[in-house]
Design a protein that fits this description.
2 strands; mainly alpha; 3 helices
C-alpha cells in the first residue's frame, strides 16, 4: 500500500521541526530541533510530549528510503526533509 505510506511520509514532512523551532536542551548541551520530529503528537501534528528520541528522526528517513527503492517517490521531492533529518 504505497499510497498510505506516501501519505504518512507527507504528514511527517509537514510536522518536521524547522530552523525556527528552537533547540533541545540536555543539561549544558544544546542541539537545534531543526530536522527532528516530535516524540509524540496529536493527529493534527501538535506535539504532545516534549522529548527527542533518535528513532523518531531515523524512521521517517528509512520510510523515505524504502518508498524511493519501491519507486513510489522521487528523492528530489523529499531531499530537504531527509537532509535536515
Amino acid at each position: 500500500d504505497h499510497r498510505s505510506a506516501v501519505a504518512s511520509l507527507n504528514f511527517l514532512r509537514r510536522v518536521q521541526f524547522g530552523p525556527k523551532d528552537g533547540e533541545w536542551a540536555y543539561g549544558f548541551r544544546r542541539r537545534a530541533k531543526d530536522g527532528s520530529f516530535p516524540q509524540n503528537m496529536w493527529v493534527d501534528g501538535e506535539p504532545y510530549w516534549q522529548g527527542l528520541q533518535i528513532d523518531e528522526t531515523a524512521l521517517p528517513l528509512v520510510l523515505a528510503y524504502r518508498l524511493w527503492r519501491a519507486g513510489a517517490i522521487r528523492p528530489m521531492d523529499y531531499w530537504d526533509m531527509v537532509r535536515r533529518g
